[in-house]
Sequence to fold (268 residues):
Amino acid sequence: MTGRPASVTQAAVPESWLALRRHTPARVAIGRVGSGLPTHAYLEFQAAHARARDAVHAALDLDAMMQRLAAYGWPAIPVRSAAADRQVYLRAPELGRRLSAESKGRLSEPMVAPDVVIVIGDGLSSVAVERNAAPVLQCLGPRLAAAGLQLAPIILAVQARVALADEIGELLQARISLIMIGERPGLSAADSLGIYLTFAPRVGCVDSERNCISNIRAGGMSAEDAAAQAADLIRCMLEHQASGVLLASRLHERPHREIEGHRVVASP
Fold:
């Protein structure tokens, strides 16, 4: 006859590991019970995973976003990618990088070629867009206006991937495309917004031709800092006629660094 199993006690976490919690929201020093996680850590993980899944599958409220932009004085044109719905979007990423035929026709109408076209796309987190896109736009718009740049109407895109801004920029003959898009949710944040900027956008651009500003959210980069970096990047792109690694190499040749914080990353 077997007796009751011995109770499993929680292992102590070294103080040196606990100190790391002050510097990162990552799951460090969460402890363990036997070979498993403490109950509270396990439940927090499950909750974070649920938030990430919800952010990916939640639909962007297009009408509410249009009304919000209009209230700030920003005219917007709604478009869709070639992905018919969310399931197609998630399973066939390439369709999120091209416009639907209807949207392509809408943007093919005559329009003054802008210096910058700003695209707001749902990406992999509509939550990030709903929380962060308008605050960034409010900070960025006046900076671009003060620089005397011609802007196109805001393009509001659903089922969008980063490269959708390439086709939009090419159709509008924009010098620079800028897309604010919901980043892939993680277990630390499900509402992170990214900004991708491309000089001379066109279908077929590769990731090394872009610059990215990421982790824009409460607890990450502020809307004001993101807008300041984006405005500086746009200035540098127009001056050097380049973006991405080519821009980085040209800036590296200068005797002083002109911009902080820009980087090139793989797009979602």
In short: The CA atoms of residues 147 and 235 lie 9 Å apart. The longest strand covers residues 176-182. The chain has a mean pLDDT of 88. The longest helix spans residues 126-146.
